[in-house]
Amino acid sequence: MSEFVRNIRLWFAPERVRDEGATPDYRFSLANERTFLAWLRTALALIGGGFAVDQFLPDLRWGARVGLALALLAAGVLCSLRAVNHWVRCERAIRRGEDLPASRFPALLSLVVAVVAVAMVVVVLVGWEG
Amino acid sequence: MTAQPGPAGRDPGLQPERTRLAWRRTTLSATVAAVLAVKTALHGGASVSGVVLCALCCGLWLGFLRVAHDRIRTLSAGTPPPALAPRHATTAVLCAVAMAVCAAVLAV
């Protein structure tokens, strides 16, 4: 947990990342930045999906619509926060010459997206019948 | 592995350009989310809360645009470009998070 708090402090303090280790080849930093941006795009797509569920499925019952929208939005928030955290951890690992941090998050996110997709199919079918 | 600038001080792998385009793509995603936000906020007539949330989402979009634009300018300034500052990364992420919060308020 203290590791996590230290990471959060690093989100806001550029100097402290640079305190550690050696400055890496700038191409590694840029690759890390692009990975961060790809995760941020994923998060923005999930948030956009939340808006879209709210807007374009007006025939659904209130509970199902809001539930799906909130699930997508929560996934988007988690994804974006994790993006910056992972970026900081990778940047530090690159500077220290350590292995890059392993992560279960991609598997978790794909499971959540799969569950939401299945729920969507069920809810749309049931919603249109009733 | 060392950087080998090309003849005109250009990275032969076009890494700064690729990163710049990644920022552009991300800006595009943010724009799509912001357009959906405006549509949701102003759906069914303009109420006070709807207009406020709409303005907030537009502000967040502008904030994101600002970060992306600064970074794009830094990246095209010269090789090798400085690394992304954590403060900018956090700002971009917080814009996305705040937009999600607006969406949650609008959905409920």
UniProtKB/TrEMBL annotation, chain A:
Database matches in InterPro entries: DUF202, IM_YidH-like
Principal place of residence: membrane
Classification via Pfam families: DUF202
Domain DUF202 residue range list: 27-93
Membrane topology value: Multi-pass membrane protein
GO cellular component: plasma membrane
Keyword hit for Membrane: yes
Name the record gives this protein: DUF202 domain-containing protein
UniProtKB/TrEMBL annotation, chain B:
Name the record gives this protein: DUF202 domain-containing protein
InterPro entries named in the record: DUF202 (IPR003807)
Natural source organism: Streptomyces actinomycinicus
One GO cellular component, as annotated: endomembrane system
Keywords assigned by UniProt, alphabetized: Membrane, Transmembrane, Transmembrane helix
Classification of source organism: Bacteria, Bacillati, Actinomycetota, Actinomycetes, Kitasatosporales
Domain DUF202 residue range list: 11-73
Domain of life: Bacteria
Transmembrane segments: 48-68, 89-107
Localisation: Endomembrane system
Membrane topology reported for the UniProt record: Multi-pass membrane protein
Coarse class of the protein's main subcellular location: membrane
A Pfam cross-reference name: DUF202
